[in-house]
Amino acid sequence: MKNSVSIIIPTFNRLDKLVNAIESVRKQSYKNYEIIVVDNCSTDGTIEYLNRLNDNKISIFKIKNYGNIARSRNLGILNSKGNFLAFLDSDDLWYPNKLKVCLDEINKKNLDFLYHNMKIKKNNSIFKKKIGYFRKLKNVNVYDQLIYTGPAFPTSSVILRKKIFNEINNFDEEDYKITWEDFDAWLRFSKKTNNFGYLDKVLGEINIGKDNYLDKNNQIKNIFKFKETYLQDSQSFPTWCNITLLTLYFKLNNYEKFYEFYNHIDLKKITLKNSIKIRLLSLLLRSQHILRKFSF
Questions:
Q1: Which end of the chain is more exposed for a tag (fewer CB within 10 A), N or C?
Q2: What is the model's pLDDT at position 57?
């Protein structure tokens, strides 16, 4: 069916948040969709809730993914019927016009991949703000832009053509790509097409709770894995990796590693905001290091 959308929602023991995610889809003004919930053997009443809805647009699949969400998403894709795929994390939600606005834009520009702005809410706070790392990708060599400037959007904002995603074998289920399997997928997708679109509209919300935070050492490991996978011939990291690494080492109070990556950044060639942030981190870490050195 033309412009049918399969919405993949992986979940695990998030019933209170899943209810909001599901209802945000059921309230969409655009109705040509199916919801595929892939449940990682929840024990909080998730399946019972979904069964009570008795909604023929909702399909339920169970999996034991062992912490690898790519397996859950791929199971959903395997059982999908739409010609477009959309992804919604079970603690996120969409606004009622999300699908209509996105599909109007896709049809207007014949896009293969579209993403949009979302608001972010941390730790169940009542305060929300526009997520910080959105940016518009130019429709020329999207792959290089992602490689050298880093992730540009969250998974819950993405709609893409399933046919092309199937051609790249969907999400990679290798364990070393856990937590950056989505960024890896967008990189591989961008090797197939530059036909990406960006909507400068807020069409949903992301909730960042304690269960969303990745251990800092694992974040560091992932950046090194990214370089190993995609930049094997390069001696240096892209600037966005250096900034991320020095920020993580700052949070770990690792003075030596912080300055190892600090010295690789040309502060005149990055945004003023990042330049000020990095200089402040340097001053703070240096003062902490001096205090520790002379404390007795």
A1: C
A2: 97
Backbone angles phi and psi of 134, in degrees to 5: -70, 145
Residue with tokens 């999300």: 98
> Under 8 Å CB-to-CB from 242, ≥6 apart: which residues?
261, 264, 265
How confident is the model over 90-143, as pLDDT tens digits? 999 999 999 999 999 999 999 999 999 999 887 655 555 555 456 788 878 999
Residues in the chain: 296
Rounded Cα distance between 39 and 171, Å, is 17
Q: Which residues lie below 8 Å from residue 87, measured CB to CB, with a gap of 6+? A: 7, 8, 9, 73, 155, 156, 158, 182
Segment (H or E) for 92: none
Calpha distance 6→140 (Å, rounded)? 28
Angle (nearest 5°) at CA 158 between 152 and 162: 125
Give the side-chain half-sphere CA count within 13 A for 25: 26
Does this model's pTM top 0.85? yes
Collapsing DSSP to helix, strand or coil, 50 comes out as helix
DSSP string of 135-197, one letter each residue: -PPPSS-HHHHHHHH---S-GGG-EEEHHHHHHTTSS---GGGTTTHHHHHHHHHHTT---EE
Of the candidates 262, 263, 261, 250, the residue with the CA atom closest to the CA atom of residue 289: 250
Instruction: Supply 63's token pair.
Output: 């999996």
